[in-house]
Specification:
21% strand; six-stranded mixed β-sheet
Amino acid sequence: MTRRLSHGERLCVASHNAGKVREIRALIEPFGMTAISAGELDLPEPEETEKTFIGNAELKARAAAEASKLPSLSDDSGLEVHGLGGAPGIYSARWAGPEKNFDIAMEKVMAELGARDHLSDEKRSANFTCALSLAWPDGACVSFEGKVFGHLVWPMRGDRGFGYDPIFVAEGRSETFGEMDPEEKHAISHRAAAFAQFKAACLPQETEA
């Protein structure tokens, strides 16, 4: 049986990405959890050496739990473009360069698609994947994965969200994630899908909150 967190417990969000921290904090606050980020604790960012989203999420969660002595939740997520064979995938952040400039990353995605003559709707299909890993200081760790499917648009639309949100439209929607109200995005996103599994397995029961 998966170990549950307790109502009111402090949780380290193992990320230096302000957008991710903001979204995760909003998801756990209704459960009375206090979130503090790895950036706020000035924890080093471990090198992501694994080949899967879950592998990298576990690596980061374990490093943060060991350094902070707190249960630590890590997110590893990215955009998988079907016309690019799943790229940028686990390298989504690296495509943004050392300055984390996602305008450059989005331009690169669309340039790669154009260079390969993959501008059909089928080739523009894509999905976001999110892996969430929760690690404890004693080494225990559990992981969950969620996805949201859709397609890419160009030019970029919207200044909400972060990362590749301005070029991604989820199935059945007309707005990009960059145009969508944050609460609406939270309800359908890859992160929300992974979080639903995390909530069922690890968060306090609703009656405890």
